[in-house]
Amino acid sequence: MTETTEQMEETAETEQAADTELSRARNGHTLAQQLEALLIVADEPLSAVALATATDRPVREVRAALEALVAEFNGEAAERPGSPRGFELREVAGGYRFYVRESLDPVVADFVQQQTPARLSQAALETLAVVAYRQPISRGAIASIRAVNVDSVVRTLLARGLITEVGQDPETTATLYGTTEALLGHLGVGDVSELPPIAPLLDDGSEGFDREPV
Q1: What is the pLDDT of residues 155-186, one digit of tens each?
Q2: What SS3 state is found at 194?
Q3: Do domains 2-102 and 116-201 have the same CATH topology?
Q4: Residue 198 has pLDDT above 90, yes or no
Q5: Which residues pair with 29 in a beta bridge?
Q6: CATH code for the domain defined by 116-201
Q7: What number of other Cβ atoms are within 10 A of residue 3's Cβ?
Q8: How far apart are CA 29 and CA 38, in angstroms?
Q9: Which residues contact 101 (CB under 8 A, 6 or more apart)?
Q10: Among 23, 84, 100, 191, which lies 20 to 30 A Cα-Cα from 162?
Q11: What is the pTM of this model?
């Protein structure tokens, strides 16, 4: 009984320390700084409601701060006008996320091509095949088919310019992915409809791929 009581006390102390640290971080940084920190680690667009919950601030206040950040990054802030930043904050499907400014896409693409090794891992090739034959497809659906976490692999394929975001699922708002023209060029086909049938390559001809290429 004594040991259980001691464990409960230790747990309570740990939780109190975490709450104190969180409170200190929130009080020591502006709302804009907190939003920037959350958005920079997000893999999917974050809604104003989700951001308000994470920062423990009213949704109205968070929306105003987001609009101010958008203006600042675009060089349109009234108090600090200037040149646009190399990235921008976009509202997509009811959520916010950082993106490279479109005009800088060629610079990023050139960098990726120079820095990234040419060969893809087996995991990346398998994930790429799933996207190619099942697009548009969400990250969760890819993970379900492959039965593994695919977050890092998807980021790699995005960085290589082999897949791209093509929209959002109307029901879940999850980001949907599809192949790019660059991939088609590497494969030597003009359209995904020219990909070979997948069924002959599978043991049962169906699992995970219940339809022909789009």
Answers
A1: 989 988 899 999 998 888 899 999 998 888 87
A2: helix
A3: yes
A4: no
A5: none
A6: 1.10.10.10
A7: 7
A8: 13
A9: 84, 85, 86, 87, 88
A10: 84
A11: 0.55
Residue with tokens 């006390």: 9
Nearest to 164 by CA among 180, 152, 148, 149: 180
| Number of continuous H segments (helices) and E segments (strands) in the chain | 9, 5
Helix (H, G, I), strand (E, B) or coil at 97: strand
Whole-number Å distance between alpha carbons of 72 and 123 = 39
Percent residues over pLDDT 90 in the chain: 45
Per-domain residue ranges of the chain: 2-102, 116-201
Model confidence pLDDT, tens digit, residues 98-118: 988 989 988 887 887 776 556
Give the DSSP letter of residue 195. S
43-63 pLDDT, tens digit each: 788 999 999 999 999 999 999
Neighbours of 203 (CB within 10 A): 6
Sign for the CA dihedral angle at 63, 65, 66, 70 comes to: positive
DSSP state of 166: E
Q: What average pLDDT does the segment 35-41 reach?
A: 94
What is the third-level CATH fold of 2-102?
Arc Repressor Mutant, subunit A (1.10.10)
Contact 34, 26 (CB under 8 A): yes
